[in-house]
Amino acid sequence: MTTMRPLEISKRVLAVVLPHIASTFFSDLLRGISDTIAEEGFVMLIGDSNYDYRKERQFVELIQKQALSGVIIDTMCPVQKESMYMQYLSSVFVDTGIPVVLLERKTTAPGFGSIYVDNVKNAYLATSLLLKNGCKKIAHISGKLDNQLSLKRLDGYKRALSEYHVPFSEELLESGDFTPNSGFIAAKRLLERNTEIDGIFAANDQMAVGAIKAAKTLGISIPDDLAVIGMDNLSVSSMIEPSLSTINVPTYQMGRQAVKMLLEKKENMKYVELDCNLIVRKSTDKFASSEWELFGW
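^ that's the sequence the OP posted. Answer follows.
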């Protein structure tokens, strides 16, 4: 968590709270925020929760008495505490005239804005690609299942299975924490206990990269024996071997739009869904083109 000494701050300051700024996903998002803040003549305070809701709350409590123009939060709040947390954010920020924009989740609460993507739809598209390619036993590596984003991506996975009349099985589900190592461990468990798995949808690219590494250590050929798809379209996804099929999430644009929304009048706060698209690479189709992404990292 970022620390700061008590001081008087100008009103041209935005506070930003993210789960893990060292992650490529959040560094891209932060770049969109930072570039736009600089263009508008603002500065920012950054809090890094390291995927820990308690650290997020500590940072929020630290900044709540500061003179801020707005707050951007990509929260790690567990779903069972979400209602209470929204009330808290409203009381310490919105009710005092400081607007809040939430990232990666939709809200229509008064005084809040949100910039998000349709995680159910995106997970459905990713899983459907594997099903259309003939995969019969598709495993899912989710994020922590007390997280709204993880639950929505799990829902999209289940919807695709249902549409193709494939029964959902708990045996084909493992949870990670969005890191490559957790994807490696989850995939190794899945593949060692069920040798019939021929597809893996991981809830983000980092876990999907870990899954590819696990498959390689077990001598499994990708995509001949196992197809793998992730989500986010991180730069590294085009450079690993085989290159990773994924859903492109416009993280930089998400950051830019969050700042723009905050700088509008409070009464214009709204929710905005950003479009995503499927990118097919060699981890699901050996004949797919695979250009290296050499920008943005």
